[in-house]
Amino acid sequence: MRLDVVTIFPEYLEPLNVSLVGKARARGQLDVRVHDLRAHTHDRHHTVDDTPYGGGPGMVMKPEPWGEALDAVLASGEGRPVMVVPTPSGRPFTQELAVELAREPWLVFTPARYEGIDRRVIEEYGARLDVRELSVGDYVLAGGEAPVLVMVEAIARLLPGVLGNADSHRDDSFAPGAMAELLEGPVYTKPPEWRGRTVPEVLSSGHHGRVARWRRDEALRRTSAHRPDLITGRGPEGFDRHDRATLAELGWREDADGRFWRAPEAVEE
């Protein structure tokens, strides 16, 4: 996979040289190219922003340097990449989207600063490319570079051969089809006792069915406590009979259609 990032802060992307992403780059599984937007300016101050039409606070990134930079990136490869625009007003970036983007051979990221990029840039390249405006959360950051790091790591770890164990990501929280898309439960390793706290006995029982059921129950408990919307938003086909019993213990109730709702008196453990 090839990844291009156009930014006014190339140094911000240095973490892409370490950990799993860095190793994937070193092995040639990931071709990451970082481009300095200011290299496509033509004044002595390397200006990339200007005041917004219509007034208002902040500055807006100019279309000319973005157009030149993106044209240069597109001319350097074959085919049409997917262009990813990090923005708090975009579609939520999810594990499902990470899986979808991991299937693409070429992604171009356009992290903005200030109040964002002149809308004409998005319209121009949206007419030529598959443009995805994506948000990593309901909050505003100083720029789009941090979201790029988040998205690249989420995508890169899904590429074949990047993780040491090919099955590692299949039961991730939010993985499509994993644990009915519940949050992942707690994990443990050696030693079996630490500061008086022991590993749950079932995990060393060797009984695979019991272990799987325990993990499922713990995923239900964690999801109930931290992301109840994943339970209320799931259809009745997403839970088996044991799931329903566990959810009932946690204070959930079923309606006539088999969907779950939280009883007002329910208290999380």
From TrEMBL:
Enzyme class, broadest EC rank: transferase
* UniProt catalytic activity: guanosine(37) in tRNA + S-adenosyl-L-methionine = N(1)-methylguanosine(37) in tRNA + S-adenosyl-L-homocysteine + H(+)
The UniProt entry, under InterPro entries, shows: Alpha/beta_knot_MTases (IPR029028), tRNA_m1G_MeTrfase_C_sf (IPR023148), tRNA_m1G_MeTrfase_TrmD (IPR002649), tRNA_m1G_MTases_N (IPR029026), tRNA_MeTrfase_TRMD/TRM10 (IPR016009)
> Which SUPFAM superfamilies has this protein been placed in?
alpha/beta knot (SSF75217)
Q: What coarse category fits the chief subcellular location reported for this protein?
A: cytoplasm
EC number(s) on file: 2.1.1.228
Keyword flag Transferase: yes
**Record domain tRNA methyltransferase TRMD/TRM10-type: where:** 1-231
Might you name a Gene Ontology BP term for this protein?
A: tRNA N1-guanine methylation
Q: Name one GO cellular component term.
A: cytosol
The listed locations are: Cytoplasm
Q: Which residues bind S-adenosyl-L-methionine?
A: V136, G137, D138, Y139, V140, L141
User: Recorded GO terms, molecular function?
Assistant: tRNA (guanine(37)-N1)-methyltransferase activity
State one Pfam family annotation: tRNA_m1G_MT
Query: What are the record keywords, sorted?
Result: Cytoplasm, Methyltransferase, S-adenosyl-L-methionine, Transferase, tRNA processing
Similarity comment text for this entry: Belongs to the RNA methyltransferase TrmD family.
Q: What job does the chain carry out?
A: Specifically methylates guanosine-37 in various tRNAs.
Return the PANTHER family for the record.
TRNA (GUANINE-N(1)-)-METHYLTRANSFERASE
Show the HAMAP family listed in the entry. Answer: TrmD (MF_00605)
**What does the record note on quaternary structure?**
Homodimer.
Give the protein name, as stated in the record.
Answer: tRNA (guanine-N(1)-)-methyltransferase
Gene designation? trmD
